[in-house]
Specification:
It contains eight helices and ten strands. The protein is an alpha+beta fold and about 230 residues long. The two termini are about 25 Å apart.
């Protein structure tokens, strides 16, 4: 068994070459026409006025441009291919066939219903079958899906399915624990509430012992319903 704890410090991503550029007329990842940077900034200006403020005042005059730059960071995952991230693997593992676990991968996503932050962490594990992948690639796959508009259930399944499809291991397990600001800062306003989702494939779904070992390693010794 190999166990790793991720570096909790975030990696700055502004100005990365793969960030969306927002040139008018471009087609985005969903196939829709992507507005220009100027159109994006104009939309922020409209929202500021709709909220009841004056975009021309000193504190807000540069806000539309700042928000556009922030969105390039928040949603850079649309420009990334998670399957491509996992392509480089290593076969020289001296027969290693025990669990590989990456714990506490910090993630920041945004709710696709209210566009408010989802803040949490992911735990990722797989049971190798002949080959392994660099552990940073597992964290990058989490980020590639998190840096999009999401619901947590879908994001959990996407991370697990990508690892399964590319590595073809004996099993994959993903657990995400996150706080959704769409329900902590608005609506029912329940701060401190955490949502937990899991996706178990292969041995992690079929073997109670394997699943219990994984859950104990990430601090869920009481177990989870697997899905």
């Amino acid at each position: 068994m190999t166990e790793h704890t991720s570096d909790p410090s975030p990696t700055p991503s502004r100005d990365r070459p793969d960030a969306p550029t927002g040139h008018g007329g471009d087609v985005n990842a969903s196939g829709a026409q992507q507005p220009s940077r100027e159109e994006a900034e104009a939309a922020v200006d409209t929202l500021l006025r709709w909220a009841g403020d004056d975009p021309a005042r000193e504190g807000l005059v540069d806000t539309p441009a700042r928000v556009a730059r922030a969105y390039e960071d928040f949603f850079v995952g649309y420009a990334q291919d998670p399957l491509e991230i996992l392509q480089r693997t290593f076969a020289e593992v001296e027969g290693y066939d025990e669990m590989v676990v990456l714990r506490d991968v910090r993630l920041t996503s945004h709710c696709e219903h209210h566009m408010t932050p989802i803040l949490g962490k992911a735990h990722v594990a797989y049971m190798p079958d002949r080959r392994v992948v660099g552990i940073s690639k597992l964290a990058r796959v989490v980020d590639a899906y998190a840096k999009r508009l999401q619901i947590q259930e879908k994001m959990t399944a996407q991370v697990a399915n990508a690892i399964q499809d590319v590595l073809e291991p004996k099993g994959v397990a993903v657990v995400i624990e996150a706080e959704h600001q769409c329900m902590t800062t608005r609506g029912v306003q329940k701060p401190g509430t955490t949502m937990v989702t899991s996706r178990m494939l292969g041995m992690f779904r079929n073997s109670d012992a394997t699943r219990r070992e994984f859950l104990a390693l990430i601090g869920h010794s009481g177990g989870l319903h697997h899905g």
